[in-house]
């Protein structure tokens, strides 16, 4: 089966997104001061500093949220937000006249974006040459956006699904829904998020109410600790190591525990966070064209 065309529609203007409309009318994080530095000649560094200034604790001494290409002095002509600064996203940015990409995940295939081991790699060289030739700055905004309270990556995800109303401030990653079949939860997420298929463990006819959301790559230790402490009916996550979380849940079910697993895929689970950043930019810097460009799923389903 080919990947869903809606996930392959590469470019979507922030204002046109249904989720974007929801964000504009019901912002999760306070966006009270609009139009910051709305004059021309806004630099990459000014936008980075403005975002960081609104994060609790502000500047981190140790973070992966660094520039992967370009410099802070580049005057911003246009901005693209995306989960990944893929080659395709870079080319779309060039077509849009954007010279600043804000990505949520690594650009160079490892968490720290270390590139020493890639210096003679033709794919790395092609990508870096493309960025340098077009004077494009790439900033990873991962640690900072997750430090906002509530975390807009999760909150915006839940808002898109109309499940935010079922959460509490005490446990923002847990939603208690009216009782729903597992198969209906899966169908709603596939339809809303534009996902072709998901992987799951459980009985599709199981009644579910308590949902635990651990998006992205939270890791088996966090998954298992969350299951043990919060006792959800379903753990909904971005990605897993198959020999860790999946095996724990398989054993838990054999033991008699009523817990299921839904694996959405990393990108599908955190895409809403990049949409949030695009909305923040649209409201803070209305004079700069900002576009959310979905990276799409790197994997297809046959």
Walk me through what this model shows.
The structure is a single chain. The protein has 302 residues and is α/β, with parallel strands linked by helices. The chain folds into two domains: 5-149 and 268-292, NIF3 (NGG1p interacting factor 3)-like (Udp-n-acetylmuramoylalanyl-d-glutamate--2,6- Diaminopimelate Ligase, Chain: A, domain 1); 153-266, NIF3 (NGG1p interacting factor 3)-like (Udp-n-acetylmuramoylalanyl-d-glutamate--2,6- Diaminopimelate Ligase, Chain: A, domain 1), CATH 3.40.1390. It has helices at 5-8, 18-25, 44-53, 87-96, 122-133, 143-147, 152-160, 182-193, 220-230, 245-255, 266-284, and strands spanning 12-13, 67-69, 78-82, 100-103, 137-140, 174-181, 199-201, 207-214, 234-237, 260-263, 289-292. The strands form two sheets. Strands 1-11-3-4-5-2 form a six-stranded mixed beta sheet, sandwiched between helices. Helix 2 crosses helix 11 (266-284) and helix 7 crosses helix 11. The N and C termini lie close together (4 Å).
């Amino acid at each position: 089966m080919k990947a869903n065309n809606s996930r392959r529609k590469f470019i979507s203007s922030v204002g046109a997104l249904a989720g974007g409309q929801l964000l504009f009318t019901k912002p999760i994080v306070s966006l009270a001061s609009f139009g910051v530095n709305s004059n021309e000649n806004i630099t990459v560094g000014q936008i980075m500093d403005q975002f960081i200034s609104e994060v609790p604790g502000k500047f981190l001494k140790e973070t992966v949220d660094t520039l992967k290409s370009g410099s802070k002095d580049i005057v911003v002509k246009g901005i693209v937000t995306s989960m990944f600064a893929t080659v395709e996203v870079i080319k779309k940015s060039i077509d849009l006249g954007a010279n600043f990409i804000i990505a949520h995940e690594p650009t160079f295939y490892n968490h720290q974006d270390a590139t020493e081991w890639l210096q003679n790699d033709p794919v790395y060289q092609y990508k870096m040459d493309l960025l340098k030739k077009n004077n494009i700055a790439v900033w990873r905004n991962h640690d900072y956006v997750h430090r906002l309270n509530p975390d807009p990556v999760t909150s915006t995800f839940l808002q898109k699904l109309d499940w935010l109303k079922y959460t509490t401030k005490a446990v923002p990653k847990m939603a208690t829904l009216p009782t729903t079949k597992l198969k209906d939860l899966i169908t709603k997420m596939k339809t809303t998020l534009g996902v072709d298929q998901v992987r799951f463990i459980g009985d599709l006819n199981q009644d579910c109410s308590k949902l635990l959301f651990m998006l992205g790559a939270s890791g088996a230790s966090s998954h298992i600790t969350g299951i043990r402490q919060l006792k959800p009916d379903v753990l909904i996550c971005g990605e897993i190591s198959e020999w860790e979380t999946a095996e724990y849940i398989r054993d838990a079910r054999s033991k008699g525990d009523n817990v299921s697993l839904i694996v959405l895929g990393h990108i599908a689970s955190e895409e809403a966070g990049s949409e949030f950043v695009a909305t923040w930019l649209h409201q803070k810097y209305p004079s700069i064209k900002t576009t959310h460009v979905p990276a799409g799923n790197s994997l297809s389903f046959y």
